[in-house]
TrEMBL record:
Molecular function in Gene Ontology: transmembrane transporter activity
Subcellular location: Membrane
Transmembrane residue ranges: 80-98, 125-146, 158-177, 183-205, 217-240, 252-272, 321-345, 357-381, 393-413, 425-441, 453-474, 486-507
Protein family according to the UniProt entry: Belongs to the major facilitator superfamily. Allantoate permease family.
Organism: Arxiozyma heterogenica
Segments forming a coiled coil: none
Name the record gives this protein: Allantoate permease
Keywords on record: Membrane, Transmembrane, Transmembrane helix, Transport
Cellular component aspect of the GO annotation: membrane
Length: 545
């Protein structure tokens, strides 16, 4: 096998390749020519992926030889994808809807009496929104990666975290809870919920091909909108019947969400497999077909050994930091809006409590329909090979621009309440840019340790931004919160610029690799796709745009 190198930086780690049984034949020689004359060379490798070093490889390697004999017809492919979608997707979507319900539940609870009952004043409510993400941030500074990458039972651990999360939600309704206790519960809730998106990103990479992943991530992420609809419908029903309960309506709201979460966590434990090789809904032949399908991803099911060189590679990869800052700029506004949207409807737009809960439902519909639609359009354009629009990053840039427009409408359309309200609703398509980041982690961060590392860094940025977001809503600026709205405009302008840079970087690197491959040629060894190589190491890897 050969690999690409440039500017004195080989794309391969020879120590790693030797460890997994790929023997280096022709070492890359340091180029001492002037920078302008440097020519990228290739390295050739022979391969022996058998024997005692199998633990260095991807779990899919155990099925790779048998899978290579499989010939998949288009009809078989469609049936298999449909079966995976049917067996995996509904439960993933419901979990994602519920995890967003409890994020925005505090906003509904706030206008249902939470702030009064817990005697909040000043900026204390802002810290309710931020507290959740302190726990989220802590877990993504290392614990999530160590716990879940090293475990061979990822889905079982995920289910246990979801069950704990359900219990914590029920504890939110404790009759004697005070403000400090509520803050502690929000921090703990952030700890256990932090595992959902990284695990779902990994699961998506295990079952679907790279060109299918963006659409799937768009759809399960769009379930945030379904969560908003259900939450506001429940909150409205509870509020108008608040006099019939022995406890306050907002406490009943948290109990209901908690019980739903416990039920779904139990289903996850029973049904979602730890990887496709032990999926009870797949036959032996279908498991081999899954391996053969994802071969084109240049990655498999994962490896449970944490590899330091892949962590270091993730840290020096410019894409990691572009993902990080895209996550930050898209989630500073998110942290504020998810906690203050109903409050804005109530105080800035002047709706009553009941009307504010009802008016929150269309926002969920916009997110549900918008994110799903953009994902489906991106998939359709990719299949039809439509220039520019076949790139997922194009759709991210488009929605980033719409986010900028919506935040300008919300911030500056002071002469028209309808325009401000339209801007507030249009804002709910903003997750597409963040979805693109998750899809890039799934498809473009190869090497299991590197994938988990990049995911942890992005989730840390997501958490930090959501901590900062509610703090932009300063109590002294109520009810309009003009400073927070201006910060949204600035964030989305930066986000669009970063997405353009990411698109340019990936196009340039793919062209560079194509040029080198056509010039020098690359010899492939059997099952190299499952050698747990990173995108830097693998010369056959191309970045999905």
């Amino acid at each position: 096998m050969s690999s690409l190198s440039s500017d004195n930086k080989s794309l391969n780690d020879s120590k790693h390749l030797n460890n997994i049984g790929i023997t280096e034949v022709n070492i890359y020689e340091s180029n001492t020519q002037p920078a302008a004359e440097k020519e990228t060379n290739l390295v050739s490798y022979t391969n022996d992926l058998e024997g005692e070093n199998i633990t260095e490889l991807d779990d899919a390697m155990r099925l790779a030889d048998d899978a290579k004999q499989i010939k998949i017809t288009p009809e078989q492919d469609r049936k298999l994808v449909w079966k995976i979608d049917l067996c995996m997707f509904p439960l993933m979507c419901l979990i994602y809807a519920v995890q967003f319900m409890d994020k925005v539940a505090t906003g509904s609870a706030a206008i249902m009496g939470l702030r009064t009952d817990l005697k909040m004043h000043g900026n204390q409510y802002s810290w309710v929104g931020s507290a959740f993400y302190f726990g989220f941030l802590f877990m993504n500074l290392g614990p999530v990666q160590v716990l879940f990458q090293k475990s061979k039972y990822m889905s079982k651990m995920l289910a246990i975290f979801i069950l704990i999360w359900g219990l914590l939600l029920c504890c939110h309704s404790a009759p004697y809870i005070n403000y400090p206790g509520f803050i502690v519960l929000r921090v703990l809730l952030g700890c256990v919920e932090s595992v959902v998106t990284p695990c779902f990103t990994i699961i998506t990479a295990q079952y679907w091909k790279a060109d299918e992943q963006f659409t799937r991530i768009c759809i399960w992420f769009a379930m945030n909108g379904l969560g908003v609809i259900f939450l506001n419908a429940m909150a409205y029903g509870l509020y108008i019947h608040k006099d019939i309960y022995t406890i306050t309506a907002w406490r009943v709201l948290f109990i209901i969400i908690g019980v739903i979460t416990l039920f779904l966590g139990s289903l996850i434990y029973y049904w979602i497999p730890d990887n496709p090789s032990n999926a009870r809904f797949l036959t032996k032949n279908e498991k081999l077909m899954v391996v053969q399908r994802i071969r084109s991803n240049q990655q498999g099911f994962g490896n449970h050994r944490i590899k330091i060189y892949q962590i270091l590679e993730a840290l020096r990869d410019p894409r990691t930091w572009l993902y990080f800052f895209i996550a930050v700029t898209s989630n500073i506004p998110n942290g504020g809006i998810t906690n203050f949207f109903n409050i804005l409807l109530h105080s800035d737009f002047g709706y009553s409590t009941k009307d504010s809960l009802l008016m929150g439902m269309p926002a969920g519909a916009v997110e549900l329909a918008g994110c799903s639609l953009f994902g489906i359009l991106a998939y359709y354009c990719d299949k039809k090979k439509i220039p520019i629009w076949r790139y997922r990053l194009t759709w991210a840039i488009l929605t980033g621009t719409l986010s900028l427009v919506s935040s300008c409408m919300l911030a500056y359309a002071n002469d028209s309440e309808n325009a401000k309200l339209a801007g507030a609703y249009l804002w709910y398509i903003t997750p597409v840019a963040l979805i693109c980041v998750y899809a890039n982690i799934s498809a473009n961060s190869s090497g299991y340790t590197k994938k988990w590392t990049v995911s942890s860094i992005i989730q840390a940025g997501y958490a930090a931004a959501n901590i900062a977001g509610p703090q932009c809503f300063i109590a002294k600026q109520a009810p309009s919160y003009d400073g927070a709205k201006t910060s949204m405009v600035v964030c989305y302008a930066i986000e669009v610029a970063l997405l353009l840079i990411l698109l340019f970087l990936n196009i340039r690197e793919n062209r560079r690799r194509d040029k080198l491959q056509s010039k020098e040629g690359i010899a492939k060894s059997d099952n190299f796709e499952f050698a747990d190589m990173t995108d830097f190491e693998n010369p056959n890897f191309r970045y999905t745009l």
